[in-house]
Amino acid sequence: MCSSDLGNGDVLDDVAALVAERNRIDAALARRVRAAELSQAPERDGLTSMASWLRGHCRLSAAEASRVVRSGRALAHLPALAEAHDAGLVSAEQVAVTARAVTPARLTAAAEQGVELAVIDAVVTGVAVEQPHTDLVTVVQRYCDDLDPDGPEPDPTEGRSLTVVTHADGSRTLHGCLDAVGGEKFQVALESFTQADRPAGDERTRAQRQADALVQLCDNALAAGGLPTLRTVKPHVAVRIDLDDLADPATGQGTATLGSGTVISAARARWLACDGAVSRVVFGPDGAPLDLGRAHRLADRHLRRAAELRDGGCVFAGCRAPTWWCDVHHLVHWIDGGETSLENSALLCERHHTKVHHGFRVERPPDGRWHTWRPDGTEITTPAPLLRPAARAVG
């Protein structure tokens, strides 16, 4: 890059213009999402909220979908801020910060205390347009504190939160907040494992040792067998892998699949199999009893496991409910002659299990992809999911 390029302001003007355009697009999106929410538009596609529709149909993360919905609601109460957002002067992030001030509880508190919302709207808009982002955060926090005067001891559980973000490679990032007592319990439990596992020459950082301790805590809880049963099945880590790959000593990158859909290597699957039960699941007549015939109305654990491995969660278009939220649904109802078999089964979460009994329909044609149809016969379409290899399982 030459020195004349460094002094050229055109590229910076372009950046500023693009930021403003993005702000305007975000404003339009928030407004349209709010309009869709008010008209209950997601119900047309069998979903209960705009947040779930954005996750399933637009592939937004849970956090981003919720942020857009909250922003749309907030802008409805803050016309000055909405106008600045439309003009590209305010970002979506600034709107998200301000949305904390107009939650239903704080709107009620403002009305009870005689606080003029129009004044707050003008103040936060002015700060958002003219001052650094940190100043806006401070102003909004001060306003929220003023609306929450001293009173009875609050319920500590209301301030607890834990968000688990799953990345493309299956790794997780945790974001959370615990009250003083809950945090103390967590720290004591975690510290017991952290201090118990300190071999000579250990060069792990404190953060690494605490992360290992958290995984060990989960291992112990799963192994103890005392966790709540989910849909008739005890919580377990499931891995799907072809038998040949399991027996092959090669690393086998990308040949095994966790229950969540994350792809791992055969080597890692073999590592899990060392301390787990291995189940042979064949999609045919010579393996586990998948086809139970007419004599059995309810799916047994073998059929449920097979459906979980095949479907990976709720098959209704746009839904990403995990397997432990799902029922095993008969595509052709048992009372109408439908068999209790894998071919006649589909995993559906409770909401969508209800939907298919009230006009919606799911089908799995020979191409192996699930399709969802509205009561009027039109199909609900979403971008094609990743192909899931059919294989045997170890879990």
UniProtKB/TrEMBL annotation:
InterPro entries: DUF222 (IPR003870), HNH (IPR002711), HNH_nuc (IPR003615). SMART domains: HNHc (SM00507). It holds the Pfam family DUF222. GO terms for molecular function: endonuclease activity; nucleic acid binding; zinc ion binding. Residues 302-354 form the HNH nuclease domain. CDD domains: HNHc. Belongs to the Rv1128c/1148c/1588c/1702c/1945/3466 family. This is Uncharacterized protein DUF222.
